[in-house]
Design brief:
Number of strands: 16
CATH topology of the largest domain: TIM Barrel
Number of helices: 18
Radius of gyration: 26 Å
Number of domains: 3
Shape: globular
CATH architecture of the largest domain: Alpha-Beta Barrel
Distance between the termini: 55 Å
Largest sheet: 8 strands, parallel, barrel
Helix content: 25-40%
Length: 526
């Protein structure tokens, strides 16, 4: 039996079905790259036949050179009332142009009769025909046996027949799904033990968390020999969510001693978890196992006394294995490893004893206390480091700005105008510009003032803008965090601003975005 466990991520499809989650195409592309960097084997991009956004993702992802992950398109078996050659869903799978297609079919006789309104034999034919058709056109086809555990518990003979139909059709993997999330680990153990040996195709597991058992059920399946595990980052998914890969991966790799991803990639788990929550514009779960801020936090009394002597007294793993760190309020070392790691990423030479490290740590903690968050804002973080280390170059200084938003009687739209005064290379530039909103007007006015001195700014586009209220109890006076994503012809970067004034927070993120671009160009051409 192989020690390698295949990780199949479905954040970009299942994860977006979570309440409050909506990802743009650019969001999905950024997350896909992050998942690839972490060593995920399969990245499910969406359902191409269901909406134009997902089809656009499949088109754009072809321009990215992923190092490891295979992009998978998702959908269903053919429509019972259409022929396979005329079925839009099936044709959408092929048009996506991926090397992997994952389709789901009905395993529970209840769904076949009540939901599809067809006979049990017709369902078997549809499963077999859909997979056989796709296998003739796509290198790899994965079959998700929807509601398999519920179906098997009610009618084991028929549920097994659906797997055999998929196997005969040529499926490369048969994924057993706990779609309603109500199965217990001991049931997973029993069902898998009963079907092993009756199918020859490798098995996979896909679980939901409605009974708080998604991770446990996935781990049980792996214990039983399953080597293909599906889930989402942070457990995002419909209703109570999907199996959380941020817990599954370290459980398999650290606790079970099996291989999922490389050790260096495992160290990016926390970073990836926070990156996805930031891009999804959701608050990161502080108490999430392994990757949450509180996962290795210790506060006062006996715990702190013990852990200062020996960390194993109150920690079940070395937090650095998953990219996290121990948090003790009185510890002066907290945060150094993260700073050193980022410094190496930006080719800044620092040692653990460098006084500059403590300077960055101190400033970082103060900013995080104010509400700044640098996951997804790598541009702002690099600028922060360079300013603290004295390697930052200033390209312009703000003298002042003003933003006017007005709507007069008879106007169909609200009008925004920004006036800005900046000092550039000893010259004071005073410009004004309109925009479709106050932030857009500010952006236009700032560019207008700077592009004459820095023509490369014409390449920069603002491609995403997110706002999060940090503390809702203050109502409209609440502190706000703004995350901006920008891009030029070669790169993308994120920047962040925080203030109780949304325009000020936006201004901070805008300025960082432009300064990051100028800083990179300066280093490249000096």
């Amino acid at each position: 039996m192989s020690n390698k466990v295949i990780i199949y991520d479905t954040t970009l499809r299942d994860g977006t079905q979570a309440e409050g989650v909506s990802l743009s195409v650019e969001d999905k592309l950024r997350i896909a790259q992050k998942l690839d960097d972490m060593g995920v084997d399969y990245i499910e991009g969406g359902w191409p036949a269901s909406n134009p956004k997902d089809m656009l993702f499949f088109k754009k992802i072809k321009d990215y050179r992923l190092k490891h992950g295979k992009i998978a398109a998702f959908g269903s078996t053919r429509n019972p009332r259409r022929s396979i050659g005329e079925d839009p869903t099936t044709q959408g799978h092929i048009e996506a142009g991926t090397s992997v297609v994952t389709i789901f079919g009905k395993s529970w006789d209840l769904h076949v009769i009540d939901a599809l309104g067809i006979t049990l034999d017709q369902n078997l034919d549809i499963i077999n025909e859909s997979i056989k058709y796709l296998k003739g056109r796509v290198p790899e086809v994965i079959y998700d046996a929807e509601h398999f555990f519920d179906g098997y518990k009610k009618n084991p003979e028929y549920a097994l027949k659906t797997l055999l139909a998929a196997e005969e059709g040529g499926a490369d993997c048969l994924v057993l799904c706990d779609t309603n999330g109500g199965t217990m680990p001991f049931e997973v153990e029993r069902v898998i033990s009963e079907i092993q040996g009756k199918v020859k195709t490798p098995l996979g597991i896909h679980t939901h968390n409605d009974s708080e058992m998604a991770v446990a059920n996935s781990i049980m399946a792996v214990k039983m020999g399953v080597r293909h595990v599906q889930g989402t980052i942070n457990g995002y998914g419909e209703r109570c969510g999907n199996a959380n890969l941020c817990s599954i991966i370290p459980n398999i790799q650290i606790k079970m001693g099996l291989e999922c991803i490389l050790p260096d990639q495992l160290k990016t788990l926390r970073e990836t978890s926070r990156f996805v929550s930031e891009i999804a514009n959701l608050k990161h779960w502080e108490h999430q196992p392994y990757v949450g801020d509180s996962a290795f936090a210790h506060k006062g009394g006996i715990h702190v006394s013990a852990i200062r002597k020996n960390k194993w007294t109150y920690e079940h793993i070395d937090p650095e294995l998953v990219g996290n760190h121990q948090r003790i309020l009185i510890s002066e070392l907290s945060g150094r490893s993260n700073i050193l790691s980022k410094a190496a990423e930006y080719h800044i030479d620092l040692s653990v004893d460098s006084p500059e490290v403590q300077k960055v740590v101190k400033e970082l903690k103060e900013l995080e206390h104010q509400g700044f968050q640098f996951e997804g804002a790598e541009g702002s973080f690099e600028l922060l480091m360079r300013k603290a280390l004295g390697t930052y170059t200033s390209f312009f200084d703000l003298v002042g700005f003003r933003v006017i938003v007005e709507r007069r009687e008879g106007d169909e739209q609200t009008r925004s105008e920004a006036t800005i005064k900046v000092k550039v290379k000893g010259v004071v530039e005073h410009t004004a510009s309109d925009g479709n909103g106050p932030v857009n007007a500010l952006d236009n006015a700032l560019r207008k003032a700077l592009e004459e001195f820095y023509p490369a700014l014409k390449e920069v586009n603002l491609i995403d803008y997110k706002v999060r209220i940090l503390e809702g109890r203050e109502g409209t006076g609440a502190r706000t965090r703004v995350l901006i994503e920008s891009a030029d012809e070669e790169n993308k970067w994120g920047t962040v601003g925080v203030s109780d004034n949304i325009i000020e927070a936006s201004w901070q993120a805008l300025v960082d975005s432009i300064e990051y671009k100028l800083q990179k160009d300066y280093e490249r051409y000096r």
